[in-house]
Amino acid sequence: MSLRLDPSDCLPPQAAAPTDAPFGAQTCFLRGTRIATVRGEVEVEALRVGDLAVTASGLRPVTRIERRGLNGGDPVRILARAFGETPRRDLWLGPGHGVAAEGALIPVAALANGVTLRREASGRAEAYGLELDGPDIVFAEGLPVEAGAARADRALAPGRGAVVEGLKTRLIEAVLAQGHGLTDDADPCLMADGARIEPVRLSQGRLAFITPAPRDDLVLTSRVFTPAHVLPASADDRALGLCVTRLQIDGDEIALDSTELDEGWHAPEGAAGAPERRWTRGAARLRPGARCVIVDLAPGGPYWRAPDAPLDPVVALFG
């Protein structure tokens, strides 16, 4: 994958003075992140005020370091070499942290694809804000990213829509080249007291699940996709499972806006009082004791499919 990670295009026309404003909750490095300095790559928690950081514009002194809990939502985990050669090892950034790429500064969460860049809780709960003597680009695990107080008046260029879409497209293509696949098959099933029940396909888009005996715990499960992760133009960051357009349980018609549909369901969509569809979250609980569940589904996805298990070397050599 060829990406233009040229941080010089993202520099402000003139350095802004540092401030005492609080760091943004979503712009941070997690503990253990290595930052390039004249002392070598130094973990962010070991940096000292006065250390000279390697930046896109040269060497600049660290003027402020702030330690705090991560309270801006789950960080984004960037797998090693997600951008080709960088980062050199897995990197966690706050979701609003800017990555310098394609002549723009792009919030890393806007590039998430669910595989090589994904929102993920981390056991490293400590987060650090880092400020230099002006906004600039530093190198975290080799990846050019922003440094400076996260505030609305910063001079760093924001990511542009077409640039973000193009970059997301290439990141998805890189994941596909690694052996992952995209599929329209949601792999629906009914989990009944922990046992998997496969569907009977009644017609196109209509499935029936029959339990051999009443079960207390019934969960309609499937693969899950996030539109913003697999459709570069989408901003929908919901985790979506099955798109249900009709639901019948033991002969009863269940309204899609029924309060019976709660755990594992998104809000119904469509006209008030007559919703047209309702998405599951990938594991949607149904009423206990049901023997026959019939669902009508609209197309969903595409869903990520993990790569097949690697071929055994002996099989590869001798077929």
Automatic annotation (TrEMBL):
This is Hint domain-containing protein. Residues 27-147 form the Hedgehog/Intein (Hint) domain. It comes from the Bacteria. InterPro entries: Hedgehog/Intein_dom, Hint_dom_sf.
